[in-house]
Write a structure and sequence with these properties.
Helix content: 10-25%
Radius of gyration: 25 Å
Order of helices and strands: HEEEEEHHEEEEEEEEEEHEE
Strand content: 35-45%
Number of strands: 17
Structural class: mainly beta
Oligomer: single chain
Number of helices: 4
Shape: globular
Length: 378
């Protein structure tokens, strides 16, 4: 590590010296002097029942919420005008998690204007978004075409052990096989989601002869952390192992968004090998009271392969760099986020999805009578 640190210092000094020798003029950049611009951002999913578009007003260094805005959605020859969603409606799912003052603070500090899209999108559709704000003072538009998804995915899973913090830890391994779409350049993204469902069995009127039973079900889903370091395609031909992390002479950018193209398997098939954590199922802390006698756990895993447009692939690739701890703009090439919004700033993308759903059978993980906890095995 000392040799690596010294080499970084030498390279850094060399770059500074070269910069001073070659740069004679500087171009001043002051965003505060620029005219305000409308920002439109959206990453649409053709398979989703709801999509969202977000509008901001960029004024100097600040992002501001718009006072008035409308959005027009055109799908091929069908056009509809959408109204913005109120902050209270947008955050309705968190009502009850915060007190009134905290919720009011969240609503008042909202710095974007959201729009909900419920239209159905299909491969080949031409989608155009046109935004107008502040009584027509600002106007921005973007156009995308829905890409075609792959026709089929095959997924094999098993439980394996990987090293983590100098010990062996169980993980779920996935081998995901896809067939590339023929005779075209394709761009993909891998996403794995968990839906966790807990069923709490409890009894009322304890001590009475006829006890009433009732089930309480709590559900929620989240995207999984995907470990892709061993896969040749997802690491762009530079797979590594656990022991390699932190020891590279020149650290590489982590493919956080799990994007890839078909340059290694054009018109053929490929198998991705990735891992996700295999954790013992926990449950919300508020369920710990004596009324819950048994707790059951069900897991649904959705393996999603998203076909992207080239623009969205390049957008996520730029985000990979900007969000990576190893990215150093003084040593690496500068990164600029692409924009495909006309008349403003921002990015609009759309993807098509092919998925495989795995359902893990319900298992009992706690019994209050015996205080048993059941290990979760797959």
């Amino acid at each position: 590590m000392k040799t690596s640190s010294r080499l970084y210092i030498i390279i850094y000094i060399a770059i500074i010296i070269t910069s001073f020798a070659s740069c004679e003029n500087e171009i001043p950049y002051n965003p505060g002097t620029q005219e305000p611009q409308l920002i439109m951002n959206a990453l649409l999913d053709a398979g989703a029942t709801e999509n969202y578009v977000y509008l901001h007003l960029n004024r100097g260094y600040n992002l501001e919420q718009l006072k008035e805005a409308t959005l027009t959605l055109s799908v091929n020859d069908r056009t509809e005008t959408l109204e913005a969603i109120s902050p209270e409606e947008y955050y309705k799912d968190v009502i009850g998690r915060f007190d009134k003052e905290a919720f009011k603070h969240i609503v008042e500090n909202m710095r974007f204007t959201p729009f909900r899209l419920t239209a159905s999108f299909h491969p080949g559709d031409r989608i155009r978004l046109e935004a107008n704000a502040e009584n027509g003072k600002y106007h921005a538009s973007a156009e995308v075409i829905v890409p075609h998804p792959v026709e089929h995915l095959h997924v094999d899973t098993c439980t394996v052990y990987l090293r983590k913090y100098h010990k062996q830890t169980p993980y779920r391994q996935y081998k995901i096989t896809l067939q590339d779409r023929p005779d075209e350049k394709n761009y993909y993204r891998l996403d794995i989601r968990n839906e966790n469902s807990y069923r709490f069995l409890w009894k009322e009127n304890k001590g009475e002869e006829n006890e009433a039973t009732r089930d309480t079900i709590v559900s929620g889903y989240e995207s999984c952390e995907i470990i892709n370091r061993e896969d040749v395609i997802l690491t762009d031909g530079h797979p590594t192992g656990y022991d390699d992390e932190g020891n590279e002479l020149f650290p590489t950018i982590t493919n956080k968004y799990n994007i890839f193209n078909d340059s290694m398997f054009r018109n053929s098939h490929a198998t991705l090998r990735v891992y996700t954590p295999l954790n013992f199922p926990g449950y919300p802390t508020y369920t710990w009271n004596h009324y819950y006698e048994e707790i059951y756990y069900t897991q649904t895993i959705t393996i999603r392969l998203l076909t992207l447009t080239e623009a969205e692939y390049r957008y996520l690739k730029a985000l990979n760099c900007l969000k990576d701890d190893n990215y150093d703009e003084s040593l690496m090439e500068p990164v600029c986020l692409p924009s495909n919004v006309n008349g403003g700033l921002g990015f609009v993308g759309i993807c098509s999805e092919t998925n495989v759903i795995l359902k893990i059978p319900e298992q009992r993980i706690f019994n209050i009578y015996t205080e048993e906890e059941y290990p979760y095995n797959t």
